[in-house]
User: Which sequence fits this backbone?
């Protein structure tokens, strides 16, 4: 049996602009390929790498002729996932089509269409393996845990209950041999890098754990994992990192250091193995402030930068989001990390209710910070969270999934939409001046500098065009 696994290409210019800075490996598909095993012929099609995704899809369907097609997607890609399924059904009527990923988990009903044979929810390795084996043996897909059949009957519990997370020790090593690792690169920031170090190095993505213990009201992760954080076995993570060709590793965990015992053991094991890599990790200000020596240890083994969710510039906003932190705590964490030589990527959110004063306040706050990399999103809670249920009556578009990329407001904005988008885009544009590599005048090749300038323009232009993704009546008369 031949299996084709597909990563869709986004249609939103905001997402495409972000991908000019960062295009990461299709790690989820690598896990699925590893889970089904070598007895099946598996191929991966990453449509993000193609200029003409529809033609690339038809070309692969024609040449490979898969018996089973698996498609993953986020909420903003859901319409594209359904289009891929429908194209595949028309071209290969006998092929079985399975969808999974974040959107399939939080809103499976949206995939209840004739072209889709099965919907896999949650961590997909074991359920997908059972789907593949059942199809190969000619068995029904009914009764497989975490799998819904669109032509079957769903109970409310099957759709609304979150799928259980499996033991992380069961996670296989992803099949990186199924893609060309040279395609996957990310802008790399640090307090200081060697002269002429590339600004866009090859980057491998590694997952060391899943889940989170925090209770941020806008985030789906605590609901999906039941408030638990579960790390993989240290030896497995070390083996994966040591085997990578790329020298730069981007951790995809929701919080890398929340389990301090695991983080210490992993750092010591990497050092004992003699692994020499550069790392980017996600953490929280509370973790940094509680255990600065842990971060210092990671700096010793190669941690260049850390992602911190600053979220808002005021304590009142942080309290409303149940973030569990404060502005002062964020700033202490920033000082701790910079004193160790670890650059900070600070993530901020804006609310649809922001007016000119709130945007100015955020801009002034960011300009007053020391050198750091910043990103900005619009507070758009995920389906399945209490915050999403609270805003549901006020959502102002018919299909909010199409614009759910955390950069499009889902509810009416206080400012006219065009003005809101302009202010939002300018936050990111102004923040580029704060990047440590720019402040420190890092020397890079002309090609790398040109790529950085091009990526900056693509990203800014994508943000400025956000309003065009809405129905015209919401902005054309402004």
Assistant:
């Amino acid at each position: 049996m031949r299996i084709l696994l597909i990563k869709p290409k986004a249609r939103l210019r905001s997402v495409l602009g972000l991908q000019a800075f960062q295009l990461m490996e299709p790690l989820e598909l690598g896990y699925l390929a590893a889970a089904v095993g070598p007895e099946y012929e598996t191929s991966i099609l990453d449509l993000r790498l193609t200029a003409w995704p529809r033609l690339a899809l038809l070309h692969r369907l024609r040449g490979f002729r898969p018996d089973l097609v698996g498609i993953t997607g986020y909420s903003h890609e859901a319409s594209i996932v359904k289009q891929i399924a429908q194209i595949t059904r028309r071209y290969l009527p006998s092929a079985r089509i399975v969808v999974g990923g974040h959107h399939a988990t939080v809103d499976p009903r949206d995939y209840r269409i004739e072209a889709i044979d099965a919907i896999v929810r949650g961590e997909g390795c074991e359920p997908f393996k059972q789907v593949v084996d059942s199809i190969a043996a000619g068995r029904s897909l009914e009764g497989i845990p975490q799998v819904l059949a669109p032509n079957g009957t769903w109970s409310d519990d099957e759709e609304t209950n979150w799928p259980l997370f499996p033991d992380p020790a069961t996670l296989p090593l992803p099949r990186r041999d199924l893609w060309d690792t040279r395609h996957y690169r990310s802008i790399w920031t640090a307090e200081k890098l060697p002269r002429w170090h590339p600004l866009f190095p090859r980057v491998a993505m590694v997952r060391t754990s899943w889940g989170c213990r925090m209770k941020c009201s806008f985030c789906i992760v605590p609901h999906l994992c039941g408030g638990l954080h579960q790390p993989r076995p240290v030896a497995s993570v070390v083996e994966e990192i040591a085997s990578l060709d790329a020298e730069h590793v981007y951790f995809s965990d929701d919080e890398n250091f929340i389990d301090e015992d695991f983080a210490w053991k992993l750092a010591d094991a990497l050092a004992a193995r003699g692994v020499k890599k550069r790392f980017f990790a996600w953490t929280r200000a509370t973790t940094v402030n509680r255990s600065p020596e842990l971060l210092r240890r990671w700096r010793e083994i190669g941690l260049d930068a850390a992602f911190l969710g600053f979220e808002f510039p005021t304590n009142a906003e942080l309290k409303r989001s149940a973030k569990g932190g404060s502005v002062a705590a964020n700033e202490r964490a920033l000082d701790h990390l910079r004193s160790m030589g670890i650059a900070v990527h600070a993530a901020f959110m804006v609310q649809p209710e922001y007016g000119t004063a709130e945007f100015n306040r955020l801009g002034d706050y960011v300009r007053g910070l020391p050198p750091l990399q910043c990103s900005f999103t619009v507070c758009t809670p995920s389906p399945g969270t209490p915050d999403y249920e609270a805003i549901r009556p006020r959502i102002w578009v018919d299909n909010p999934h199409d614009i759910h990329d955390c950069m499009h407001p889902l509810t009416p904005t206080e400012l006219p939409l065009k003005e809101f988008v302009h202010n939002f885009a300018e936050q990111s544009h102004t923040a580029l001046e704060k990047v440590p590599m720019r402040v420190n005048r890092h020397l890079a090749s002309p090609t790398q500098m040109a790529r950085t300038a091009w990526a900056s323009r693509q990203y800014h232009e994508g943000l400025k065009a956000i309003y065009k993704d809405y129905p015209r009546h919401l902005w054309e008369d402004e």
Q: What stands out?
A: The chain has two domains: 2-160, 184-474. The chain has a mean pLDDT of 93.
